[in-house]
Amino acid sequence: MYASFAPPFGFIDDKDEETGEIEKIPAGGQFLDGRARDLLAQVEGPMLDPLEMNAPSKRFIVEMVRDGSYADLVREVYGEKVFADPDAAFEKLAQAVVAFEASARFHPFASKFDDYLRGEAQLTALEKKGFELFKDPKKGNCLACHAGKEDSRTPQDWLFTDFTYDALGGPKNMAIPSAAKPDSTPDLGLCARKGLAEVAPADFKVESVCGAFKAPTLRNIAVTGPYLHNGVFDKLRDVVAFYATRDTDPGHWYPKDKRGKPEKFDDLPIAAHENVNVKEVPYDRKPEKKPRLTEKEIDAIVAFLETLTDRTKP
Predict the structure, then answer these.
(1) Fewer CB in 10 Å around end: N or C, the chain?
(2) Which CATH class is domain 109-308?
(3) Phi, psi torsion values for 168, nearest 5 degrees
């Protein structure tokens, strides 16, 4: 949902808050690791991935469609000879999927929050408090990545993502069989993207984005778990609580070594630990400090996030 709003993968200008200098940072693309440049490239991935649809080739996919119930519809749109060239046919089929994913069905803007923006609904006191905490740069600071235009009442201006990448240091998901192995290879996110160095600025260090994943849209977030790139959290509240207490109570989220010390950022190689965001609110806390958010404030933000779920209207 809402994937069609993501710009093609590339590098955009970003102003460093500390130095004021403009730097190029990665943004856009499809999938959390940005491996697909755009929606068209995104179509190919799942169909040919051995861990997903496992199709052996583009030709196989084209032949399946040619011999299936959609064949006449494809010929009606693209012509009688559409299946003659498998590569060209595959691209046309992919374009059809892109058109479908770009349709209103995939971005209905039909949530309670959208009705609130239009003046057709009111947020409860708890939801309204959560929205304020969500926007507050000293509390949730969620708008820093899950962006929206504060002065706009237009739903399309509230996509709840700026399409940039960030390293959060989420815990390892031991429920994934491959991750549970002692010699498992961590998912390095954006830095593992093929061809990244070729499209990056000359002074860009690929290793600086190891562990970084794209900020997802928060639309429908309450019904699209599990969460984080590895699905380590089943509950939305756990994600918000992790953001708030990752550094004040790391022992709650990470395994402990033999001395009882939490092994923070255990799903990343040690060399990538320096990439984890520890400067921005709410991640700028130390164990001796209070979290930016209280338990009740976490509940309020979750209540607000639940207003972002699209609803079927009569």
Answers:
(1) C
(2) mainly alpha
(3) -105, -15
Q: Which numeric CATH code is attached to 39-106?
A: 1.10.760.10
Average pLDDT over residues 43-65: 94
CA distance 304 to 112: 10
| Ranges of CATH 1.10.760.10 domains, the chain | 39-106, 109-308
Question: Is the pTM higher than 0.85?
Answer: yes
Helix, strand and coil percent figures for the chain, each rounded to 5? 40, 10, 50
Q: What are phi and psi of 301, to 5 degrees?
A: -65, -40
* Residue 43 and residue 52 in contact, taking contact as beta carbons nearer than 8 Å: no
Determine the longest span between alpha carbons in the chain, in angstroms: 70
Exposure string (b/e) for 45-76, b if CB count within 10 Å is 16 or more?
eebbeeeeeebeebeebbeebeeeeeeeebee
Distance CA 208, CA 188 (A): 11
CB 172 within 8 A of CB 232: yes
